[in-house]
Amino acid sequence: MKIKVIKKNKAGRSAAASVKRDRETWVLRLYVAGQIPKTVTAFNNLKVICEDQLKGHYVIEVVDLVKHPKFAHDDQILAVPTLVRKSPLPERNVIGDLSNTERVLAGLDLVAH
Amino acid sequence: MKKKEAAGPLTVLQKSPTSIQGLDEITGGGLPKGRPTLVCGGAGCGKTLFAMEFLVRGATIYNEPGVFISFEETEKELTANVASLGFDLDNLVKRKKIWLEHIHIERSEYQQSGEYDLEGLFIRIHLAIESVGAKRVVLDTIESLFAELPNPLILRAELRRLFRWLKRKGVTTIVTAERGDGTLTRQGLEEYVSDCVILLDHRVNDQSSIRRLRIVKYRGSTHGTNEYPFLIDEDGFSVLPVTSIGLNYFSSPDRISTGIQRLDTMLSGKGYFRSSTVLVSGTAGTGKTSIAASFAEAACKRGERVLYFTFEESPSQLVRNMRSIGIDLDPWAKKGLLQFHATRPTLYGLETHLTTSIKLINKFNPSIVILDPINGFMIGENKFEVKTMLLRLVDFLKMKRVTAFFTSLTSATDNMEIPDVYISSLIDTWLLLRDIEIGGERNRGLYVLKSRGMAHSNQIREFRLTNHGIELLDVYVGADGVLTGSARLSQETKDDAEQLLRQQEIGSKQFSLERKRDAMEAQIIVLRSEFEAEQSEALKVINIEKARNERFTQDKVKMAKSRRGDVYVKTAVTSRKK
User: Fold this and answer.
1) What is the DSSP secondary-structure string of B191-259?
2) Is residue B470 located within the same domain as residue B511?
3) Nearest to A93 among B110, B122, B127 (CB)
4) Which residues from A are below 8 Å from B104, CB to CB?
5) Which residues of A touch B119 (CB under 8 A)?
6) Which stretches of chain B drop beneath a pLDDT of 50?
7) What is the ipTM of this complex?
8) Which residue of chain A is at minimal alpha-carbon distance from B100?
9) Is the CB of residue A18 less than 8 Å from the CB of residue A52?
10) Do the Cβ atoms of A78 and B105 come closer than 8 Å?
């Protein structure tokens, strides 16, 4: 898999309060199309949310469909950016630049603090 | 026309042929090349098939690979669905002629947070196009995105961008859409895809379905504007642009025999015109089918092909029945010159009948087509539709130079001509079969109601079905009117007896005249002999008188001589005068 792994942090240090689930690692995949402002916005928004909610046990995989168009077909992606919660199952999807944090939390089934 | 002239030959829109039967004729060559075309219509009207056929024909005939983006059916479903129409999608996909892409999304899976775009879809379409080098793209049915993705505003903008993008790519695209309430499409896609809009319609009239196609719009091109019937069958999609044929077909001066010698005679000695339209109408059991069968047999004997549509009898029943009047159609059917096609008219709608007929005619290429009878089509108050259908068929047949032969059943209670009046204008030669009831029997009379372009007989003929075919006999026209059947026979015997009597009378008159002449001549002989006897008697007397006279003169001379008088000279003169 040609997935760019942005951050991997297994050690669950502080911020225990905000962790809803147990210590299992969340795998979040963000599908984007090229290095455009919307991509950057989405990634930054996601990173903020993850740091806030899942600090220490999340992985963000970014798939650039321009570089790897086959993923669009294989993973049935139409809209970009699309965020997919690959783990824990079941998969959940959020589309958009993730500027609305509440919607992202609801979409990922992360309870807001 | 005006549009075309204004456009001029240089800027003529390039077209992408669909090879869908009839559609290229209406559109003047196909869909606009490199532009999107909107195909809309209600559920089950054949949008997907239309689009699929466009792709498959493009891939197989024009070597233009295609991409099918399906938003509803999966690749497997699509392949199975169109296999019934003879398209081997699996093979085409393997050969990289066609790319099937199923786009599956469910709204419940999506939460929207902020703005998004459809770049993923663009990338997928782009990848698909690149994979096979596609020239044709189908988006079936892209509107379903509205049900599945949030924020219609974004979607609209994105679709507009998509169509522009496809146009830039130069691929000929078909976008299908469901028909909306009072609008062409539910989401108003016609606003974005406006180069060509084709509307498919599937309606039901009198329990039979009719499919129609109409080109709502075709920017930069002339096109047929009517509603055209179309058909979906095992050969795919076919549109019938028959109404576009018009009245400029060629009319043949050739004549073909009717198969009944005396009927040929009635039609100025040579029979029907080739590629004309013949109608035989009459009440039940007047022998319409028999006339049709005679015509068919005659044609087969000439080596021509006959396509016989029978809407009441099965082919075997027809063959059997015709055998009883000495017409054996079976050998011709076996030889392949005669082809039967038996269906119940109520089985399909008119359009289906028309389209299947036309397909069969195209396939079999007959020189004669028989429809026996055309009444079955007339269900309820659909006379106008039936007329339109027959008009299309007649036009088509004329164009193909096929002779059309229709039979029509008229009701005994109706006035003979009225039920057929509305198709009369289509008919070139119209034979009418009539029942004539006299003297407790029913006989058949035939006459030519009209026959365009020939001096046809105005006589009624008695029409008899014998075990050696059809016979036409002169009817008895006398003081008592028209007589047929045994009335005619008895009248004829009566006539014969009378004639014999008259002949005898003439004979005896002649005889007595002879006798009179003989008598007269005998009398003449008697008279002559009497005369001759009298004559000779008279001559005798005359001679005696003459001799006496002479002697008297001589005596006088002698006397004078002896008297030496001057009487001598005078006497000499008188004697010389004698």
Assistant:
1) GT--SEEEEEEEEEETTEEEEEEEEEEETTS----SEEEEEEETTEEEE--GGGSTT-------EE--S
2) no
3) B110
4) 76
5) 33-34, 65, 79-80
6) 1-8, 244, 577-578
7) 0.78
8) A73
9) yes
10) yes
Which of B30, B39, B34 lies closest to B141 in space, CA to CA?
Answer: B39
Q: B536 Cβ partners below 8 Å, 6+ apart? A: none
How far is it, in rounded angstroms, from Cα B152 to Cα B116?
Answer: 11
Q: Which residues contact B52 (CB under 8 A, 6 or more apart)?
A: B68, B78, B82, B87, B138
Residue B159 shares a structural domain with residue B14? yes
Per-residue pLDDT tens over the stretch A10-33: 444 434 434 445 567 888 888 888
Structure tokens at B480: 């008592």
Q: CA nearest B190: which of B66, B335, B361, B38?
A: B38
Residue at which a domain ends, from B188, B211, B244: B244
Whether residue B576 is contained in a domain is answered as no
Domains plus CATH for chain A?
4-10+25-108 (3.40.30.10)
Residues B94 and B149 in one domain: yes
Domain that holds residue B462: 255-474
* Residue in A with minimal Cα distance to B125: A73
Three-state SS across B279-291?
EEEECCCCCHHHH
Query: What are the tens digits of pLDDT across the range A25-74?
Result: 888 888 888 888 888 888 888 888 888 877 778 888 888 888 888 888 88
Tokens encoding A91: 């998969």
**Would an 8 Å CB–CB cutoff place A86 in contact with chain B?**
no
Give tens-digit pLDDT for B433-462: 888 777 777 888 888 888 888 888 888 888
Q: For residues B336 and B302, what is the distance between their CA atoms, to the nearest angstrom?
A: 13
